[in-house]
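## Example pair
The file below holds two records. Each record gives the amino-acid sequence first, followed by its structure token line.
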Amino acid sequence: MIDHSILLQKQVILRYLSLLCLPSSEFLRGNKMIAVENQAVVSENAIPKDASDEFTVPESNAFGQSFRDYESTVRLSIVENCYRLHHINQTYDFVKRTREEYAKLNKAEMSIWEAVELLENFVDESDPDLDEPQIQHMLQTAEAIRKDYPNEDWLHLTGLLHDLGKVLYHPKFGELPQWAVVGKKCSLTK
């Protein structure tokens, strides 16, 4: 008998790996762009532009919150070091080897919740806003979405699982360095 939960978990991991280092243009769909940083869908027509047709940064996002401030965070040196290592080490050859290694799906077998629990002591070094364990961030994200969209079960689940790929940092999954697992995705060329 086929265990569909295991197949789903393997598909989630493969999907995450397929997104490693794809250019943001990969996420363009018609006149909508999926912003990978915050998983929000933004219409190109909604981007404010001034008279010279250059992008103007708004004071706040659609929810009235300010945007990330990388300069005044107490975590600045941690974030800078993570991205420095990312830009030095995230090469085409590294990504190719990593995809080949993880496509074998031989690192671990567990439930989705067991994978979430692996992130109990993981703090994302690329995030200037959070110094809490990733599991707490995932639960808070799911709960915030549930509060705002109570009838969208699929969206609650998406909020919970959106950072699940960070389990690749855990020893059970090969203990990849944080620069290989977290942060913004970049495009690579041969």
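Second record, same layout:
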Amino acid sequence: MSQNLDEWIANINKMNIKRSEINLLIMEYLISEGCKEAAESFKTEANIEFDMKENEETEEQIDRRIAVRSAIESGKIQTALELINSYYPELIDNHRHLYFKLQVCIHILCNQH
């Protein structure tokens, strides 16, 4: 197994990856994770050009996703459901398992108090 790892590391070391490519990868990661402020800071610090308009999501869509995620992470499942229904009305209908999981979270949170 270590031989495969050694080969993998050797192959990685042979690659010529530009810093600009790595910076764009980092930007995409920050945006996809909803770290909008960190992405903006990184853009400035790394002095890279990144046009949000070329991104798959608009700034408004990113803000909506962040709002839903924040509500879930802070245990405000009912608020998250309301936001989901408002922003993405078809999501719950098309993914019933998601609705079930959120309802389980509500049940668990209610029983903890």
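Notes on the second record: The chain has two domains: 1-56, 58-113. The mean pLDDT is 83.
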